[in-house]
Structure formats: structure tokens, C-alpha cells
Design a protein that fits this description.
Blueprint: H1 2-38, H2 49-54, H3 97-142, H4 146-188
Helix pairs in contact: 3-4
């Protein structure tokens, strides 16, 4: 008896709500027709591989340049990082602390740029090989000649091996960059003293 009441309430609510659904469905269809009519005169934008090649890629990881710090002695600002040719003093006196850090900062910025460049090149190579794999598979499925398919299969297997190696290289380059950034952050963070 209880189940019949629940079923009756459900069916009653369904029949009451169904005209609301049909109205909203009709409104949606009308809006879609209006949208399509508005787009009739416009042309679709076609993006080609040449368009994609011209696009500038932005780095996935951007590190802000080191800020110049005022010199402790005399209150004058330093003109910039010291040349990398000057050796960094391992045991610097208290007054020479900032001067000793400048060459390290310049070499660390150079190392950072080199690691970023290596990672970006590895990523681009992986992307190029991925595109080549896609093109080879597309060509393979488009051919009917079995001899040509065998040649393309050979190219696919060679490209696949190159792609696996390139992916490993990209992961290693990214890890090196992350390790370097972690060390740099650790070195610049002041020690925390708890009493």
C-alpha cells in the first residue's frame, strides 16, 4: 500500500512538471535557431599547422630576476652583479657579505637560464616527435598499399623510440631545474630559530 502511494506521488509530480520541461525545451530550440541564424554570414576560422608554428610559445615556468640590494657600507646601491670572473670569497668578513654573494648570484642566474633553456628545448622536441607520430599514424591509416604501410611502420617504430628517449630527457631536465630552484630557495630562506 505504501509503495503504491509513493508511485502515485512520483507519477503525479512527473505529470505536473512535464509541461514546464516542454516549455523550456521549446525556448532552448528557439534560442539555438536564433544563434545559428546570427552565425550564417560569418565564416569559420581554420587553424593550420603553419599558424601553430608561427605562434610564440611562452615558458611554463618563469622565475623573476634577482632584485638589486643596497650595499650595507655607505648606503649606495650596487650597479649590478659583479662579473663572473671574480672569485667568491668563501670566508667573507662581516662587512664584505654582500660583495661575496654577487658572483654567486650571477652564476646562479646563468645556471638557472641554462637549465630553463635545456628544459624548454626538451619539451619542444617531445612536442615535435608527438606531432610526427600523429602524422605518421594518419598517413599509415590513409594508405592501402601494404609495402608503403611497412615503410611507415618502420618510421613509426623509430620515431616512437626517439619519443620515449626525448620524454625521459625532458623529465630529467625538469627535475634538474626543480632541484636547482629548491636549493636556491633553501639557501635564500633564513633559518628559523625556535625558542
Amino acid at each position: 500500500m505504501r509503495a503504491k502511494r509513493i508511485a502515485a506521488v512520483f507519477l503525479l509530480s512527473f505529470f505536473i512538471a512535464s509541461p514546464g520541461f516542454s516549455q523550456s525545451l521549446a525556448e532552448i530550440a528557439k534560442q539555438e535557431r536564433e544563434r545559428r541564424e546570427a552565425l550564417k554570414g560569418k565564416r569559420a576560422v581554420v587553424v593550420t599547422n603553419a599558424d601553430l608554428a608561427r605562434m610564440k610559445k611562452k615558458p611554463a615556468l618563469e622565475v623573476p630576476a634577482a632584485e638589486e640590494r643596497p650595499a650595507e657600507a655607505g648606503g649606495a646601491e650596487t650597479p649590478g652583479p659583479a662579473p663572473a670572473a671574480q672569485p667568491a670569497a668563501e670566508t667573507a668578513e662581516p662587512g664584505q657579505g654582500l660583495a661575496a654573494e654577487e658572483p654567486e648570484s650571477a652564476s646562479s642566474q646563468e645556471m638557472l637560464r641554462e637549465l630553463q633553456s635545456r628544459w624548454e628545448k626538451a619539451k619542444e622536441y617531445v612536442e615535435l616527435l608527438t606531432l610526427k607520430m600523429g602524422a605518421l599514424w594518419q598517413e599509415y591509416y590513409g594508405l592501402e598499399n601494404s609495402t608503403a604501410k611497412e615503410a611507415i611502420q618502420q618510421s613509426i617504430s623509430e620515431t616512437f623510440l626517439k619519443l620515449e628517449k626525448a620524454q625521459e630527457d625532458e623529465i630529467l631536465a625538469r627535475r634538474e631545474l626543480e632541484r636547482f630552484l629548491g636549493r636556491q630557495k633553501k639557501e635564500t630562506t633564513p633559518p628559523l630559530w625556535i625558542r
